[in-house]
Amino acid sequence: MGKLRIGIIGCGDAARRHYLPALAVLADGIELVGCSDARPAAARGLAALARGWSPRVRAFGQLTDLLEEARPEAIFNLTPARPCTPRSARSACSPVFMSTREKPIASSVEEADRLIEMASSSGLTLLCAPASAVTRRVRWLADVVASGRLGRPTLAVAQCATTGPAAWASTPATRTVFYGPGVGPVLDVGIYRLHELTTILGPVRRVQATGTIAIPRRTVVAGPLAGRTIEVTTPDHVLMNLEFASGALGQLLSSFATLATQAPWLEVHLSEGSISLTGDPFGSDGPASCFGPGGWEHGIFRAAARGPAAGHRHGREALRQLRGGTGEADSDGRARSARAGDRACGL
Fold it and tell me: Mind listing the pLDDT tens digit for each residue in 311-320?
């Protein structure tokens, strides 16, 4: 059996820093056959980085050329949220390809429905980032909530609050897109928390949201646009109130106008206890605290889950978040507890 032929659409920061290194680990079973980007130099640069393990990879300036000439069997669509047009999304989910794309799954709920139906009717797999719900911390939290050991969930509070890409040294020249219509903090970073909330608490029945532009101008601190001013034209603070089908409530802050925070990035309150996740939600180490019958328990998760399927969600799960927003570990896979006593939370 030959290697799976892979194509990448969108050759920017995410492709270079995250996807390409992960794909290289799987080189025994896959081959990168083509990279496509509207910026031909970006496509050539990504292809050059991959030639050590995929020597036949080619660079393309047009998506149609990639699909017709390189003939990939699977596609990674890593284009930014707004530049991913319905046409390009449909092309990358034609009856010939399996497709994995960066969040959000589409530019509208209607387009997401069409993509899901297209993949389903063709018998193909359509996957979507983010990977946060399959990290060990979130899977453990979901297991505790589902077990009923701490009663029923009643409230979840989450936040993803930063100053946004203008202050990120790793973000490329396209960072202005993130402060404009069609992107903003909900679809760029808040989607991670929405993903986790719906994984843990199930579907949302009702959403209420309010937003504002708190800081209307930003100065880029690094990269090719360093020193340039960005006009913010979409809300950079967005507060969402969620009512889950189970009756539980949720609150989510998505922000590109928060200089710093020490608040937990996810906290779930149940009828007989509370669970709090703190630290860097994107880091390999992560603290978790749980209040149960024996008081507080504290632990550290050493790494996120790994494996070929760890980074993606099926299309219908990704649609939940679109609707809402429109490593090594211990041998048992759990955090190591910092105290003895009652282990109601499994830490």
Answer: 334 545 544 4
